[in-house]
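Protein Record: Sequence and Backbone Structure Tokens
======================================================
Scope: a single protein chain, as residues and as a discrete description of its fold.
Tokens: labelled as protein backbone structure tokens, with as many entries as the chain has residues.
Position: the record begins directly beneath this header, with no further notes in between.
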Amino acid sequence: MVEAREVIFSFIIMVLATASASWLMLVYLRIARRASLLFFSANLLFIVSCMLMAARFGRSGFLIWNLADIITLVGFSLFSLGVRTLYHQPLRLYHYGLLAMTVLLVYPVIPGQLSSAYWFALTFSVFSSALFYFIARDIVAANRKRVGLVRSLLLGWPFVLAIGLNGIRVITQLSNVRPVYFTHNDEIFGVSILWFFIAAAVFFNIALVGQVLWRMIQRIQYQADYDGLTDLLNYRAFQRQLALVDADAKRRAQDFSVLVIDLDNFKQINDSYGHLVGDEALKHCVQTMAMATRQQDCLARTGGEEFSLLMPDTNLASAHQVAERMRRLVEENPLRYQGKRVPLTVSIGVASRALSPLEHLIDCADNAMYDAKHGGKNQVCVARGRGAPALAAVKTEPAPADEPTRAAHPKRS
């Protein structure tokens, strides 16, 4: 039995060493570098703790009992910090500080010997469950909006399972019932629990690799669909959204409208103030325009200084009101950057699906926007439809809106 334990411990250390090497390779390749470095460090700590635990047979001492468990818990803490780092979540160090203080108060009290195995099992299960909960909670919080609760739980399933198994372990320990996967006293490291350690080492790291890959996929999707400067949908993603809204409008027999918006005199802003101020002007314009939109509207950057707004369930008259409100907001909120006051205006073209076929809808709104440009800029022009001249509406007062507004454009999740 002792030889079997030694072989299994050696296998666990080999698995952890392989995981450490894999994480170190990701660090070298600059893939989720900070998170991968934390995961690499955690696996190194697990190797140290396994080497200490392997020396427990027939021995006593703070180093191989108390410190080994503490090192393992620190490794789980690094797992948790790595997940938060991966998803750019606040670290909330006070949670870990409170847990660390509790661990340092409790573990020195437990005698480092075989007769205390019951208390080591109980204490370790409680603290590790708390850390597994932190990890599972952060994975769910980072992915729930995008993939839903069930799928986000599946992304972190080894940690969810570990919480359940540790819960069973605590209950059985408190009930003086010997758990199936843990035995104490003379069988402190039975073969069953060692195989459980192997499974945990493998599946925890696989789950975390899955998180890194999933995060990479999200970033690739973001770069494919979003504009990096303004955090708005790009032209291709806007076209997909337009097709979805059109299909939904046909199914429900509802109208929708599109606004094409161009920032006036953008070249002069770049030439006069520099490209850095030009970028700030675009971001400021987006934030200002978004104040006139609803949550269901879709604002996208479809060109250098050109934007498009997709407005579901909105007829031409209502879209015209929104366009006027948007034009006025941009005019009344100039960019203030490093002591400079940069006036901004926009020219807007409005088109409705009810008057234009889908394949010409953007062109109609775009032509109306150019009519606003040619009419003196800082205007709203409404397209009558395909082949009809646009109706100009120069600085008209907007009618009161029935729809609630939002303070900023929607961010990606």
